[in-house]
Amino acid sequence: MLAGRHKSIKKGQALLVCEDISVHVARKAMKNLRLRVLPPHGEVHLSAPHHVSTQAIQRFVRGQLAWIRKKQAEIAARPVLSEEMVNGERHRLFGQEYELRLCEKYGRHQITIADGGILLLTVRPGTTIANRRRVLSGWYRQQLSLHLLPLIEQWQATIGVTVQACTIRQMRTRWGSCNITKGRISINLELARRPPGCLEYVLVHEMVHLLEPSHNERFWGLVGHYLPDWQEHRAALESGLFPCRPSEEQAWCVYMVRCADNTLYTGITNNLTQRLAAHNSAKGGAKYTRPRQPVSLVYVEEGLSHSLAAKREYVIKKMATKQKRQLVTL
After folding, report:
1. What's the CATH architecture for 252-328?
2. In the chain, where are the structural domains located?
3. pTM of the prediction?
4. Which of 30, 166, 168, 237 is deepest in the core (most CB within 10 A)?
5. What's the pLDDT tens digit per position in 249-304?
């Protein structure tokens, strides 16, 4: 039966206990049941339409117990990704493995690839492990951006669709997502570690959604037409889904808006909706944008710490106008 609320259960959720399996149940405005087993601990989450009865949910979960246990066993068997950011650790970039070497010296934090498969992390003396991770995360984000631009240009021409914006995000359960109405695509930052074919498959998958919103026969036919070996890439993704790594509170983003005079303004915020509204208000926003209203969002990088968002803002503001416009086309 559905258990009562518990202090560890999120607001709007209930807990269903079926044999030895606990399932977090959330009611949503949706058509079908959606069951997920999430890393790193194998938590089970079920999203259910409002009209589906408790008894129907219980029957569904009982029918999926074998699948749930199998997924939990797979997650438990995965090695936890160690990111202590010390010499000798192994890190991947687009499927290629590198050995981390730490160099402490005063100056700008940076990462470079050296001969012999070495990933050289240069940080100031005393830099914390958390900040070393942020440097690595920012570098992955930069590398992924560089790979995305030519891929998007290539596949826009091939598929015949236009991507209005593409954001890189840290996502727990998806490799990518597509806002069909706005033509916006989100890509999981984790794809910077995966072989290049995985990134291309996820991008094509999301771009095909601009032609066909549903995962129906037509959708998979289109994916197969444009990318005949898509099943190999999906299998590569599923073979090591979402390695576990230390979690951090990352609620900031760096963004760019296009002003009425076609110039670009860059800023950071932890409430993008509120900040955009302020940019278009009579007294709010930035001094630069007030005489150039209305403004519209054209680029965003989400899931950042405050310090990393501030650093990315600095880097983007130092870019030439041409570089900024190339970034916006991602």
Report:
1. 3-Layer(aba) Sandwich (3.40)
2. 2-77, 141-238, 252-328
3. 0.57
4. 166
5. 446 788 888 899 999 999 988 777 778 888 888 777 788 888 888 888 888 877 66
